[in-house]
Amino acid sequence: MSLGTQHSDGPAAPSRVDFGRRVRILRRRRGSVSLRIDLRTAGVCLALTGLGVLVALIALGLGDFRVSVPDVVRALFGASDRAVGMVVVDWRLPRVLLALLLGAALGLSGGIFQSLTRNPLGSPDIVGFNTGAYTGALLVIVFVGGDHYLTAGGALVGGIVTAAAVYLLAFRRGVQGFRLIIVGIAVAAMLGSVNTWLLLRADLQTAMSAAVWGAGSLNGLGWGSVTPVAVLLAVLLPCVAVLGPKLKYLELGDDTARALGLRAEPLRLGLIVVGVALTAVATAAAGPISFVALAAPQVARRLTRTPGVGLLPAALLGAVLLLVSDQLAQHALPADLPVGVVTVSIGGAYLIWLLVKEARRQ
Amino acid sequence: MTTSAPTRPTPSRGSGTPGLARTGGGRGGWFALTLLVLAAVVLLSVAIGAKNIAPHTVLDTLFGHRGSDDDLIVLDVRLPRTVLGLLVGAALGVAGALIQAMTRNPLADPGILGVNAGASFFVVLAVGAFGLTSIWSYIWFAFLGAVLATVAVYLVGSAGRGGGSPVRLTLAGVALSAVLTGIGSGITLLDPAAFDQLRYWKAGSLAGRGYDIVLAVLPFLLAGLAVAVAISRSLNAVALGDELAAGLGVRTTRIRLFGVVAVTLLCGAATAAVGPVAFVGLMVPHVARWLIGPDQRWIIAFSAVLAPVLLLVSDVLGRLVARPGELQVGIVTAVVGAPVLIYLVRRRQASGL
C-alpha cells in the first residue's frame, strides 16, 4: 500500500491534517518540493543560532585584553588595527570556532545514538567509544609520555578499536538494540577498570595530567586544530543529512522499518559509524568531553517539546552548551579547569531545571 | 541444536523467554546450586591470600578449634573482609534488581539515582575541605552524600502530579550525578592530595575493613533488604508499565518511593563501606533474569546470591594476580564479569526489560 494514494482529495486536504502541533506547510505548485515545518522547532533552532552567534561575539571580546562587540565585528571583517585583529582572529577565534564545531558534533552524535537505541541514556559511550579512547590515551600518557598528537592518535585508535569490537561482539544475525547496549556496557566497564588501574599505577603527576585530558579540554588549541576538524565535519555532515531523516523509521522497530522499504541493518551500521566518527573528531581534538552528547538531545527535546529526538536542535544546543561552558571555564573559575568539568555541571544543572519546570507544567 | 529453535524472534515480547528454569522446581534447584557455589567461594575467600591456609584449618578455626597461628589471619583479617563482601555483594545485587525493575532501563545500575556521585562528592569534601584521611571518617560522609543525593534525585524526578515517570527519575539521577561529578573533579584537579586519596577510594576495595565497618553498615543493609523483599511482589506489576500496574491495584508512586528508599539504604551503605563498585549491580540482575525468568521475587533472591559470588571471586582473584600486593575488587569485578555478560547475551535470545 502506498502512502501517496490520498491525493484524490484535492490539494487542500493535507493541510487539514491535525498534527497536534502548529505546523506550516511549504510546497511548490507542482508538488516537486514539499516541506512540513514545525513552528516551535523552527523557532527554537533560530533562537539557538542567534544565541550562539551572540555568545560567540561576546566571547571573542573576553579575556585579559577586552574588546567591545562592535570592535570584534570590525576585527572579523579585517577593519581594525593589527593588535586587536591578532587577539580576536588569531588567538580567540579558533577556540570559539572549535567549541561551536565540536559541541555540534557531540550533540549530533548523541542525538543519533539516543534515537538509535531508543534510550535517553544512549550516547556514543554505548559502543564504548570514549572509554576506549581514554584507555588508548592513558596507555600513551603512562607508557610513552604525552605528546599532544600522540595522545590524540592513541585515543582515536583506542576508541575505534573498542567501538568495532562492541559492534562485532553484539553482531548475531544483525545487531539488536538491547544486545548492543549490554555488550557496550560490558566492554566499557572492562576498559573502565583498566583505566582505573592505569591511573592507580601511574605517579601522581602523570595521573593528574591524564585526568585533565580525560575531562576534555580546549586549552591551547589554535587554527592548526580547526582545519582538520572543519574538513572532517564537512565530510560527515552530508552523511548525517542523508541518513538522519531515516532514523524516525528505525525508531518504529526493525520490522516496521523493513516494511517501509528500509534495509535496517546497513542503515544502523551507517548511523553508528557516522555517530562514532563525529565523537571521534571531538575526542581527538579536545579529549572525551563528557555529557554534551547525553544532555544536548534531551534538553533540545524539552525545548522543542517533540516526542522524539531532533538532530538539528541537538547539534545547535550542543554548540551553544560547549561554547558557554568553555567561556565559564576560562573566565569565571579561579584556575584554568578543563571545559569537560564545566559542561557536566552546567549541562546537568540545566537538565535538572528543565525537569522541574516540565513537572510544574503538567 | 538450532533445528527446533525459531530462526526469527517473534516481534511480540509478551510471549518472551521465561528463562532457563521454567518451573518452580527448576528454580529451586538452581537456587540451591548457586547457594552451594556461594558457600564454596566464601571458603576460598577465607583460605586464599598472601598466606594460603588449608581449607581444613579454616573450617577448624571457624568452628571453634583455636590454637594455630592462622587463627589471627582467618578471624581478624579474612573473615570480616569476606563477611563484608557477602553483605555488600548482596546489597548491590538487590539494589540493581530493584532499580532495573523500577526504571525498566537495562542501562540502569544502582548508581543511577546519584548514590555513587553523592558519596564520591562528599568524600571529596571530607578530604579536600576537612582534611580527613581514614576510611572510618569517610564512611559517614559517603553515606550522608549518598542519601542526600538520592533524596534530591527523587524530589526532582517525581515532582509534579503522578509522581513522575521512570524516565524522568533516570534523567534526574544522571543530571544530578553529572553536576556533582563535575564539581568534585574540579576540586580534585586543583588539589593533588585530594586527587590522590580519591583515585584509591574510587577503585573500590574490601581490603583493610574490619568488623567495626561491617557492624556500622549492617543495620542499613538489613533494613534495605527488608524493604526490597516487602515490595518485590508489587514490582512484578510495576514492570508491566505504570498504567497497567495502576489497573492491577498497585500504587506505583508509593512502590517507587519504597524502592528508592531500599536502593538508597543498600547501595549507600555498600558504597560507604567499600567505595563505588559499579558493575555488580548492573550485571547480576540481567544474569538472574536470563536464568530464571521475569519474576521479580526470584530475580531479587538470585541477585542476592549471585552478586556476592561475583564480588568474592573478584576479590580472591585480585589477591592472586598481583601477589604479594593485590588489585582492588572494583577493578576486578568488571574484568571478570564483563566476558560472562557478553557470552550470556550472545548465547541465547536474552530478554530485554
Outline:
The complex is a heterodimer of chains A (about 350) and B (about 350). Helices cover about 70% and strands about 5% of the residues of chain A. With about 350 residues, chain A is mainly alpha-helical.
Describe this structure in words.
The complex is a heterodimer of chains A (362) and B (353). Chain A is mainly alpha-helical. Chain A has one domain: Orthogonal Bundle (ABC transporter involved in vitamin B12 uptake, BtuC), CATH 1.10.3470. In chain A, 70% of the residues lie in helices and 3% in strands. Chain A has 14 helices and two strands, in the order ββαααααααααααααα. Chain A has a two-stranded antiparallel ribbon. In chain A, strand 1 and strand 2 form a beta hairpin. Chain A is globular. In chain A, 49% of the residues are buried. Residues 1-14 of chain A have low confidence and may be disordered. Chain B has one domain: Orthogonal Bundle (ABC transporter involved in vitamin B12 uptake, BtuC). In chain B, helix 2 packs across helix 3 (70-103), helix 4 (115-128) runs parallel beside helix 6 (166-190) and helix 11 crosses helix 12 (296-321). Residues 1-17 of chain B have low confidence and may be disordered. At the A-B interface, helix 6, helix 7, helix 12 and helix 14 of A face helix 6, helix 7, helix 11 and helix 13 of B.
Name its key features:
heterodimer, A: 362 residues, mainly alpha, ABC transporter involved in vitamin B12 uptake, BtuC, two-stranded antiparallel ribbon, 14 helices, 2 strands, 70% helix, globular, disordered N terminus, B: 353 residues, 13 helices, 73% helix, 0% strand
